[in-house]
């Protein structure tokens, strides 16, 4: 059985859990936290020198880091990856957008506000910068979602799963979604998918 | 013919140019700079609401943002994408690493030092943070490249092109590569590829 090493409260770690739930595939969850030094232990660093979760472990012991690369591996050949070459590249475009323009703002601002361990880093400048950067990313999403049901084509893809992870908790980062009706409708659409599971869900629970 | 809208001096914009050169495919280059407001013009924002280059334009006018998604589109079905599903995911893992852990440190520190427009943002704290973060990313690459010729498997892939773009100019960001012999040998290996072109190269020149 596949194992996902991850921190249950992390949006990045939720992404592969949500995909596995949507696909109805069993997996094992092993809790590893970046907040208590778990990702800096020698055994973990041997598997992922970058010291980050999630980390996917295959049946043969091979490991794969990077939440969105894990989504691509698990989603390969499923209904969450478009057949069309250009649509597939558009999906990846949103996933790179998520890691470069969205997560470092929307998710990081949440972590600055939510985790006591991050308090020293939560300077007024940092909070202002991530607020502005996060709203810029949300506006880019809104532009698409105000006129479309899904980020790519007319069906949910890995891009929707990747961007759902931190967008649905943007409020905890101080991002008011009232001005983003397209995003709010899209969040509800994802939550209405058959076999959807919330971030609090863990396999076996 | 395909068009790549980009800033000739940008590593992100160099990635698809280098891939097209290695593939021996013709393309058109249109200079658009983020330093003179070119990426914030209404016509450009209509094509990429995120206001970033590079932007790929197909023959039919469809556009695709995100340098690494463009690499995936252009590289699909070529020798630069592994056939094996797990190796393909590993390639994407390095590409997400590049955008999350490498570019915001190694490339951003270079831009802070090189571009007069960035001088106000080049605070001592920012320079110290990006120096530490950049060396952390380079150490992760060195761990792989001290024992392997390429980032994934035994042949160059899109991951090598993506990470070459800013690593080969890390010195301009104040990153001394003397302690990274694996990276230096890998840079030379890429520069020895048939049809390799430097960042200064533009089609037609």
TrEMBL record, chains A, B:
<dbReference type="Pfam" id="PF00043">
    <property type="entry name" value="GST_C"/>
</dbReference>
<dbReference type="Pfam" id="PF13409">
    <property type="entry name" value="GST_N_2"/>
</dbReference>
<dbReference type="InterPro" id="IPR036249">
    <property type="entry name" value="Thioredoxin-like_sf"/>
</dbReference>
<feature type="domain" description="GST N-terminal">
    <location>
        <begin position="1"/>
        <end position="82"/>
    </location>
</feature>
<dbReference type="InterPro" id="IPR004045">
    <property type="entry name" value="Glutathione_S-Trfase_N"/>
</dbReference>
<feature type="domain" description="GST C-terminal">
    <location>
        <begin position="84"/>
        <end position="205"/>
    </location>
</feature>
<dbReference type="InterPro" id="IPR004046">
    <property type="entry name" value="GST_C"/>
</dbReference>
<dbReference type="GO" id="GO:0016740">
    <property type="term" value="F:transferase activity"/>
</dbReference>
<keyword id="KW-0808">Transferase</keyword>
<dbReference type="InterPro" id="IPR036282">
    <property type="entry name" value="Glutathione-S-Trfase_C_sf"/>
</dbReference>
<dbReference type="InterPro" id="IPR040079">
    <property type="entry name" value="Glutathione_S-Trfase"/>
</dbReference>
<protein>
    <submittedName>
        <fullName>Glutathione S-transferase</fullName>
    </submittedName>
</protein>
<dbReference type="InterPro" id="IPR010987">
    <property type="entry name" value="Glutathione-S-Trfase_C-like"/>
</dbReference>
